[in-house]
Amino acid sequence: MGLLIATVYLTTLSGAFFAFTDWSGVGSFNFIGLDNFRNIFQRTELLSSLANTLIFAFGFLVISNVLGLAFALALNRNLKTRYLLRTLLFMPVVLAPISVSYVWGFIFAFDGPLNQLLGSLGLTSLQHQWLAEPLLARGSILTVMIWQNIGFVMVVYLAGLATVPIEIEEAAALDGATRWQRLRLVVLPTIRPAVGIATTLTLIQGLRVFDQVMALTGGGPAGATETLATQVYKQTFAFGKFGFGAALALLLSLLILAFSVLQQLATRERA
Amino acid sequence: MFRYTKRTLLLEIVVVLAALALLMPFWILVTTSLKPGEEILTSAAIAPPKSPTLENFQTLLSPSSTASGQILNGLLSSLIITAGSIAGLVGLGSITAYVLIRSTSRWSRRAFYLFLVAIVLPTQLGVLPLYVGAQQVGLVGSRIGMILIYWGVLLPLAVFLYAGFFRELPRDYEESAMLDGASPFQVFTKVVFPLMGPATGTVAILAGLIVWNDFFTPLIFLNGSDAQTLPVVMYNFVGSLVSQWNLIFAVVLISMVPILIFYVFAQKKFIQGFSGGIKS
User: For residues B19 and A86, what is the distance between their CA atoms, to the nearest angstrom?
Assistant: First the structure.
């Protein structure tokens, strides 16, 4: 109990407190009010890392949930290979994001498999420096995040799909409902709790993205893939601006809290 | 009603192909780590190695290389920190959750909510003051320090998972053990805890994965010290190897092997652990 209060509550509170100071991590500090936050919103590179964080989080949320749900629906009942495929697709989930990122770093390398594939298909015009062009670098990081999490989202949805009574689906099918109608009118309303859990967890995970950026681009090219989490780390530990880093961390925390609450409200069962 | 038709077969083929495409990175990882350096430059990345060699692993792990000390030390650190974290979280988490669930007093309910809120509280904010605090008491760069930090940070999750199971546990066992003269502590260690196998498995798997794969926390607390865990060793190592992908992949594979072996044997538990941990 004391451990919990010391490591979670006290540190969080003092973290929030330091966000309003100019502390460098050692020695004395001044209370400077909202200066850190004013500073954040005046510096374009920090605003763009805020924007990147949101882009990553929402791209990750939407695409990984769509793909995870698609695989869950496909592997829910009929396929003969469903147990094997579930096991294989879940495998990336247990690996360290940083290791996975290095594997993809090779895939995106200029002489790597992706460009080799495009070359052998005669599509040399599509070959790119995937991690060196701002837009593509963002897409590449997003790809790695999504790739690693399809299996996780799939398992959450499979757990939800297990609660859908097959009789109701059959009855709907007999009444002439198409696949799409069955999904929209029967399945999705039943698995609403699973949707809530999967979307909340992916959103939080997306907002906190750190490992993939550090391993693949280090925040480059020219800050195009910098996120709030990487900025917290850099400002605090590389530049020694403890108070400023704390302000960024507070901003990130507030984002996470606000979005989780919104998410809960949006996916809560309607009474 | 939903029978296996030609359309199902078509779907099956499409899904299998999609899964194979998704698993491609694993193939690339393994084959590349088995190729000598020159072959990486000359052959296609997805071509199988012409003559598979363990040369890359030998280069890294042979006692004469400087890398071997770092890698083995990282492996040892990861193992100690993960095992220590799991042991503490199982011990502390189960007792705390048991007391909070079985006690009917008002404070225990409030304390439980305190734990629940701590799960959603973002960790980024707490990490900075935690670093300063740990530095003052000399716990930065130490394995014990890391274990203590993980205990604190992951305890809410462990308590939450255990609490879900304790709620379902009928009191009959405890009452009959009590009648036979067991002390409350004996009731817990001899009767309740052994019944908690599935919960302990879930806590151990989830906490173990989080700790083993974590990069952010050990980067802050252990970077540059002798206690660095594998992800941090790997991060520093890859920075020093410019595009020697066969060597990089050998390090990556070494760091993945323990968890992959574990996954192959316990994959059912893994998947149940995740969906079970989520449902409750």
Answer: 10
pLDDT in tens, B42-89: 777 777 887 777 878 887 777 777 777 788 889 999 999 999 999 999
Q: Quick check: B215 and A97 CB within 8 A?
A: yes
Of the candidates B11, B129, B278, which has its C-beta nearest A156's C-beta? B278
Distance of CA A137 to the CA centre of its chain: 16
B152 at the A interface (CB within 8 A)?
yes
Q: Name the token pair of A36.
A: 């850190």
Q: In whole angstroms, give the CA distance from residue B123 to residue A11.
A: 9
DSSP state of A133: S
Find out whether B232 and B215 touch, Cβ atoms under 8 Å: yes
Backbone dihedral region of A242: left (phi > 0), alpha (psi from -120 to 50 degrees) or beta? alpha
Buried b (16+ CB within 10 A) or exposed e, A169-185: beebbeeebeeeebeee
CA dihedral B160, B165, B168, B173 (to 10 degrees): -130
Q: ipTM value, please give it.
A: 0.86
Amino acid in position A257: L
Between the alpha carbon of residue B160 and those of residues A5, B165, B207, the distances in Å are 16, 9, 12
d(CA B126, CA B200): 27
A155 touches chain B (CB under 8 A): yes
Alpha-carbon span A259 to A261, nearest angstrom: 5
> Quick check: A30 and B178 in contact, CB under 8 A?
no
Residue whose C-alpha is closest to residue A67's, from A174, A168, A143? A143
Q: Do A91 and B153 touch (CB under 8 A)?
A: no
Secondary structure class of B54 (helix, strand, coil): coil
Task: List, in sequence order, every residue forming a beta bridge with B214; answer none if it has no partner.
Answer: none
Query: Distance between CA B125 and CA A106 in Å, rounded?
Result: 33
Report the b/e string of B11-29 with b at 16+ CB within 10 A.
ebeebbebbeebeebbebb
* pLDDT of A151: 94
SS3 B210: helix
Q: Decide if A85 and B25 are in contact by the 8 Å CB cutoff.
A: no
To the question of pTM greater than 0.90 for the whole model, the response is no
DSSP B187: I
Contacts for A248 with CB less than 8 Å, ≥ 6 apart: A40, A46, A228, A231, A232, A235
